[in-house]
Design goal:
This protein is α/β, with parallel strands linked by helices and 319 residues long. The protein folds into 2 domains: 241 residues, Rossmann fold, CATH 3.40.50.300; 56 residues, Histone, subunit A, CATH 1.10.20. The chain is 53% helix and 10% strand. It has a 6-stranded parallel beta sheet with strand order 3-2-4-1-5-6, sandwiched between helices. One of its GO terms (biological process) is tRNA modification. Its EC number is 2.5.1.75. Belongs to the IPP transferase family. Monomer. This is tRNA dimethylallyltransferase.
Length: 319
């Protein structure tokens, strides 16, 4: 199949709690599609509530891929995602099924849009030497602070004392962020796929209110119990998955380091900050078709998403 004949593969992006999953499911129902998750937390088994995985009812029969792949103490890299997602895209398109990418992990999205070879990327020796010098002089803590500054999402999944992984993460993140700012210089757009990025955004006050409500819903649906069960299974705050927002705060509560009320407020605050960082990533992607959601009422928001869905369907069909 030539590139001209290949279908447009939609990528749905946007901050947490905005409605990406709902939109992707409705899009799949109208286009004989299946969803490939681009969420670095939904890859973990045993973690359903805090990662906002769609329930079976919410999926409405639409198959979801790259969810529930590994256990909370296992590691999964962006290179793993890139390889598995591209393979799944090839399988689905060969079956005349539309792959729909949906998720909020910026680096995952970039690994699809651009020909980023994580396994073979040559080391920038000058950067490596600089980072190793920082480690020798100031230790892994200084390196970890630098990683948090440029890619806090990745930093959540690396132990602060693992200086070798921290250095590699800084290298990859630096390579990625440079390419985002000037992708024609360091990153090459993929030529063998027709990706089209659709983004959702919302007034910050409305979005933050949605985030606070979602956290309350998660807690009412058993997030506290989910975290407690993970601790009972032997996982702890050093497990890669449990460094995520919603889990680390409740672990601090279970360890007696803060009150339950403080943990809840921290989850809300950290989720709001996470949403802000997501938008910083997404605003660097060129040629995104952005759609604004203006309603804070769930029923009205669903109607807005339906209108957006219809517009995307028309664009996918070249109308």
């Amino acid at each position: 199949m030539t590139l001209v004949n290949k279908p447009i593969i939609p990528i749905i992006i946007g901050p947490t709690a905005i409605g990406k999953t709902h939109l992707a499911i409705q899009l799949a129902l109208k286009n004989h599609g299946e969803i490939i998750s681009a969420d670095s937390m939904q890859i973990y088994k045993k973690m359903n509530i805090g990662t906002a995985k769609p329930t079976n009812d919410e999926k409405q029969g639409v198959p979801h891929h790259l969810i529930d792949l590994i256990l909370p103490d296992q590691r999964y890299t962006v290179a793993d995602f890139q390889e598995q997602a591209l393979t799944k895209i090839d399988v689905l398109t060969a079956q005349k099924i539309l792959p729909i990418i949906a998720g909020g992990t910026g680096l995952y999205i970039h690994s699809l849009l651009y020909d980023m070879d994580f396994s073979k990327k040559e080391v920038d020796q000058s950067l490596r030497n600089k980072l190793e010098a920082i480690y020798k002089e100031k230790g892994s803590e200084e390196l970890f602070l630098r990683l948090k500054a440029i890619n806090p999402e990745v930093a959540l999944r690396i132990h602060p004392n693992n200086w070798k992984r921290i250095i590699r993460a800084i290298e990859v993140s630096t390579y990625s962020s440079q390419g985002i700012k000037d992708f024609s210089k360091d990153l090459v757009e993929r030529k063998n796929y027709c990706f089209k990025v659709f983004g959702l955004y919302q007034d910050r006050k409305i979005l933050y209110n949605s985030i606070n409500n979602r956290v309350d819903d998660m807690l009412n649906n058993g997030l506290k119990e989910e975290v407690h069960e993970l601790l009972k299974c032997g996982y702890n705050r050093n497990s890669p998955a449990l460094k995520g927002v919603g889990y680390k705060e409740l672990i601090a509560y279970f360890y007696g380091e803060c009150s339950y009320e403080d943990a809840v407020e921290l989850i809300k605050r950290n989720t709001r900050r996470f949403a802000k960082r997501q938008m910083t990533w997404f605003n660097r992607i060129p040629d995104v078709t952005w759609y604004s959601l203006n309603s804070s009422n769930p029923a009205d928001k669903e109607k807005e998403l339906e209108v957006i869905n219809n517009r995307i369907v028309k664009e996918l069909k070249g109308m």
